[in-house]
């Protein structure tokens, strides 16, 4: 049978004023270390936007009128997401988006070739660069709608973290002259 501790006598280790003061001081020091200033927010990335009106396109058989039976495909660009990484040479802007196409009656073959662009705009509004890229959207047998996810990185040289938020990237489909003229015409004639 174990002996019961005598609680009437103070425990020399646990009740020592020096030990209690030391434990209290250590607790305060630890608390002071954990209340450091919060880390600074990450630098702002350049803005990435789908250019209004250029996020959709329609392709017709070459040389034909823009009628439903001459439609090769309709397409939209959607779900744009972006992030960035700053380095010594500037900023790399990572872009991800979806291209979705719908088969038209005049589509020959099982894929639609989509041309799109990425344009970089300076804070002054000046277009610094424009890249035209392409992607094929393949339709499975019997399917009228298909899509692909695109990921690319655009480097903006010599752009610092302090400047990055003032730059913009615009994405859209590369419109041919006929489609551009069609969009410029008034809807009511």
Describe this structure in words.
- By secondary structure, the chain is mainly β.
- The chain has a single domain (47-184), classed as Immunoglobulin-like (Sandwich).
- 14% of the residues lie in helices and 43% in strands.
- It is built from 2 helices and 8 strands; from the N terminus they run αββββββββα.
- The strands form 2 sheets. Strands 1-8-5-6 form a 4-stranded mixed sheet, with no helix packed on it.
- A hairpin with a 2-residue loop joins strand 3 (71-87) and strand 4.
- It is elongated.
- It starts with 16 loop residues before the first helix and ends in a 5-residue tail after the last helix.
Topology:
Layout: H1 17-34, E1 47-50, E2 56-60, E3 71-87, E4 90-103, E5 111-121, E6 127-138, E7 145-157, E8 168-173, H2 177-184
